[in-house]
Amino acid sequence: MPLSPETRRFIDELTASSPRPGAVGVDAVLLRSSRRDRRVVGADVALVRDLAVPSPAGAVPVRLYHPAPDGPATGCAVFLHGGGYVVGDLDTHDHVARLLAAESGAAVIAVDYRLAPEHRFPAAVEDAFAATRWVADHAADLGVDPARLAVVGDSAGGGLAAVVALLARDGGPQLAAQVLIYPVTDLSGYPVSEDTPYPSRIDNGEGYFLTSEGMRWFAGQYLADPADAEDFRASPIRAADLSGAPPALVVSADFDPLRDEAEAYARALAAAGVPATTVRINGGFHGMFGLGSLLPPGRQAELLVVATLRDTIGATRRAG
Predict the structure, then answer these.
(1) What are 37-94's pLDDT values in tens digits?
(2) Can you give the residue ranges of the Alpha/beta hydrolase fold-3 domain (predicted)?
(3) Which residues, in sequence order, are bridge partners of residue 253?
C-alpha cells in the first residue's frame, strides 16, 4: 500500500529538521523530536529503578521497569534500544520501555550498552549478553520469573537481541521468546550495489528517513574492520546454525531499507525449525515504534509486540 499523506508529512518534517544522514541515530532523532513537542508521554509504571550490571569491561547501566513489584514474579523482557549502535540510551527509549511494561504486564530491563565509535564491535554484544545473564541470575531480587525471559529490540537493538538469543541458546539462560522490531540482521553489503540480495536497500534507500547511506555510516562506526560483518555477532543472518533459538516475532516495515533482511532472517529461522512469525506493517517506516500515539502504523506495531509479550511472558501467562 502507498505511504499515507499523514506519514509522508511526518517523515518529511523529521527529515527537514534533522542533521545530515548518518550524523545521528534514527530512533534518537525521532524520540527527541517527540519529547520536544511533548506529544509522546511514557506510561506510568509502578516501579522504575536504575541499576548496574557488573562486567569485565565495567558496570553496564540498566533500568528496571516493574508493573507489579508487590505481586507474584512476572516475566521479564530485556530491552535493547536502537540507534545504529552509535546513539541512544536509557532516556531516549524510556517511553518505549514504559509502554512494554505497562501494556504487557511483564517487567522490562532496558540496557545502556556501550556505543560506537568509542566502543566498537563486539562491545555492545558483550554488554547485552552480560545483562541478560545477570537478569536470569538475579531474578528473585528483581521480582521476575527466570523461566519467563525474553529479549526485545528495535533496529540495531533488534540485531543485538537476535544475537543474544543465539548466545543464550548455546550458553544459557533459556529464553521464552525473541522479539525483533525492524532488526539489523546483516551489516555486510555496504555501500549498496545493484546485486544486493535485499532490494529494499535500493527501493527504500532514500526518502523514508533511515537511508542506506546512513546505514553504511553506522556500520562504519560500529565495525572495527569491514570483515567483522561476516561474524554472526554482527550479522546474525550469517550464523552457521539457527536451530534451537527461541521462538521469534519479527516485525518489518513496508518503507524500510532493512525490510528485506529482517524478513530474510525470519525465513532463515523458520527453515532451521524455529517457530518464527513475520508481520510487515503496511505503510510503516523505520523508527515508527514508540510513536503509536502519533501514527497508526506505529500503534499497530506496538499492539503486536505487546500482545506477543503478554502471551509469552506477561500478565496472561501467570494464570497458566
Answers:
(1) 435 789 999 999 999 999 989 999 999 999 999 999 999 999 999 999 999 999 999 9
(2) 78-289
(3) 281
Is 141 marked active-site?
A: no
Residue whose C-alpha cell is 526518502: 207
Q: What 8-state DSSP symbol labels residue 229?
A: G
Instruction: Domain 5-317: give its CATH superfamily.
Output: Alpha/Beta hydrolase fold, catalytic domain (3.40.50.1820)
CA–CA gap between residue 192 and residue 144 (Å, rounded): 43
**What is the rounded distance in angstroms from the CA atom of residue 79 to the CA atom of residue 97?**
7
**Nearest 10 degrees: Cα torsion 87, 154, 303, 92:** -10
Choosing from 104, 155, 200, 212, the catalytic residue is 155
Active site residue 95: no
Q: What pairs with residue 50 in β-bridges?
A: 63
Structure-block grid coordinates of residue 210: 533511515
Distances (CA, A) of 46 to 67, 119, 303: 5, 34, 21
pTM above 0.85, yes or no: yes
Strands (E), 82-233: 107-111, 144-154, 177-181
CA 291 to CA 238: how far, in whole Å? 31
Q: For 189, phi and psi rounded to 5 degrees? A: 85, 20
| Residue 286 known to be catalytic | yes
Domain residues of the chain, as ranges? Answer: 5-317
